[in-house]
Write a structure and sequence with these properties.
Number of strands: 6
Helix content: 40-55%
Radius of gyration: 24 Å
Largest sheet: 4 strands, mixed
Structural class: alpha+beta
Number of domains: 2
Order of helices and strands: HHEHEHEEEHHHEHHHHHHHH
Number of helices: 15
């Protein structure tokens, strides 16, 4: 990867950046805030104090927090929202502890206020999300491995939100390319793993929505019916993200992310309807009709992608057909729900 040469921002450039952000106070997104803070203070600090480290560093904003996904709003500012960025270091063999400590101290001395936001004096909830971070530590926290090389079992069992947090946000430069390579390696599931996860979630959709929802209604179990609707929605959202080849983020941002997907994003309104309405009288039949309509849309996309050979409206049959298309025999022969 080509070496990035940094140059310090002049005083007038810094003033313009600060003024622009202050004029947009409470409207600026976290990624923009971080990028401008880095350009205003972080980049000059590195160029002036650590020029010899530049070939070994990466900088950006990625990991935990709504701002790393671009989902932050005014409400997001009530916790863990501050100007800051990530400086990623290679191993101690390449950048020793003392140098890392000096870099941490220089980062800590950067201005505490920027763009109408103040940096916290304490570590944010859940640990340090910004500042100087070893690449191996970051990847181990998110994936359990220091380089992002995963076994089949890890691909099957890792929380999807963790994979989303490794690959979200932005890298502004990566002179060694180590962080970029790991993010590319983890960009999305291997195809056989995607199919296994699709198969399992399709089966859950079939059981909860097409089979159990109305049965619960007939039993007079309206609470159980709502649980069935909820399970159908969870399975459906997982399937839609898999069909789009994008990781599903933490549940509180799932609808926000779903509405931005290129495929099947219009299902979000119908899924919200299933979750937010009761199950009394004719509404139950209407909800079941919505379930079948969503299932038909999912099946159409499965067929468009060549993922199923079944030719019917039964999601269960499509689940097993998708599973049959897994190339790796050992993975194919695992229980169909092994990846969910």
């Amino acid at each position: 990867m080509q070496l990035v040469i940094l140059s310090g921002a002049s005083g007038s450039e810094r003033s313009r950046r600060i003024l622009r952000l202050e004029q947009k106070e409470n409207k600026v997104k976290g990624l923009e805030l971080a990028r401008e803070y880095y350009k205003t203070y972080g980049e000059p600090m590195l160029a002036e104090q650590f020029p010899e480290l530049l070939p070994k560093l990466a900088a950006g904003l990625t990991g935990s927090g709504s701002e790393c996904f671009g989902f932050d709003d005014e409400v997001s500012r009530d916790h863990d929202f501050e100007p800051g960025f990530c400086l990623f270091l290679p191993s101690e063999e390449e950048v020793d502890r003392r140098t890392a400590f000096l870099l941490e101290r220089a980062y800590a001395k950067l201005p505490k206020e920027f763009g109408g936001c103040t940096r916290s004096l304490l570590a944010p909830v859940g640990g340090a999300r910004r500042g100087v971070i070893r690449i191996a530590d970051f990847l181990t926290e998110k994936t359990g491995t220091p380089d992002g090389v995963l076994t089949l079992q890890q691909w099957l069992s890792l929380p999807e939100q963790s994979l989303a947090e490794v690959t979200n946000g932005e890298l502004w430069f990566d002179n060694r390319g180590e962080m970029t390579l790991a993010r590319e390696r983890l960009a999305f599931y291997p195809e056989d793993v995607r199919r296994k996860k699709l198969a399992g979630n399709l089966l859950l959709m079939a059981q909860a929505g097409q089979y159990n929802y109305l049965r619960c209604i007939r039993h007079g179990e309206t609470g159980a019916a709502q649980l069935a609707a909820g399970e159908f929605v969870k399975g459906c959202m997982a399937v839609i993200f898999l069909l789009n080849r994008q990781y599903q983020p933490y549940y509180k941002w799932s609808f926000r992310a779903l509405r931005a997907l290129p495929k099947l994003s219009l299902e979000a309104e119908l899924l919200e309807y299933l979750l937010t309405t009761d199950n009394a009288g004719e509404l139950a039949q209407d909800k079941y009709d919505v379930i079948e309509g969503i299932a038909a849309d999912i099946i159409d996309d499965l067929m468009d992608q060549g993922l199923t050979k079944a030719n019917c409206g039964d999601l269960e049959k499509h689940a097993y057909s998708v599973n049959d298309g897994i190339a790796d025999a050992a993975l194919r022969n695992l229980h169909i729900l092994a990846a969910v």
